[in-house]
Write a structure and sequence with these properties.
alpha+beta, Arc Repressor Mutant, subunit A, four-stranded mixed sheet, 8 helices, 51% helix
């Protein structure tokens, strides 16, 4: 996904794991931890608040989920999906058939797990594992597994 790659080229310092919050903030998006999202059953949301693009994420979820949520919400912003998105946990499933949500998920995967960085990590390791790569990139094992399959490094 070229939009994620362009955002990384402009705002990523090249260190792993990719910091989606820092990238969002450098792109002019405010990022707020909002515990009230848990009560609403939400992982995150994107909206324009007082004229400022704003991502809210649920800080009560596991760290890897928080990072993916922020990446997903950046996707809604960059891919111009509209003014407001509220994302229940189900939207982050690989089985999500909503094309807008699937696009935001792909964007998050490309942002948090850049193809070149994955290739480098695989080549530099004597025995790369899904769990080891997931830890290095700060994502869940499932997210890493799907990314490796999509990049052709792993069979589905």
């Amino acid at each position: 996904m070229s939009q994620a790659k362009q955002l990384l080229e402009r705002h990523w310092n090249g260190r792993l794991p990719v910091d989606p919050k820092a990238i969002a903030e450098k792109a002019g998006v405010r990022v707020i931890a909002d515990g009230s999202l848990a009560v609403q059953g939400l992982s995150g949301m994107f909206d324009i608040e007082d004229g400022t693009p704003t991502i809210r994420y649920n800080p009560n979820e596991p760290r890897a989920r928080q990072r993916f949520t922020i990446g997903h919400e950046i996707g809604h912003f960059v891919l111009d999906h509209g003014r407001a998105y509220r994302d229940p946990v189900a939207n982050f499933s690989a089985r999500s058939f909503n094309p807008v949500e699937a696009a935001a998920n792909r964007f998050a995967a490309c942002l948090l797990m850049p193809a070149d960085a994955i290739e480098d990590a695989i080549k530099e390791s004597s025995n790369p594992t899904v769990s080891g790569l997931a830890e290095a990139f700060g994502v869940s094992e499932l997210a890493m597994k799907y990314r490796l399959i999509n990049l052709g490094w792993l069979r589905g």
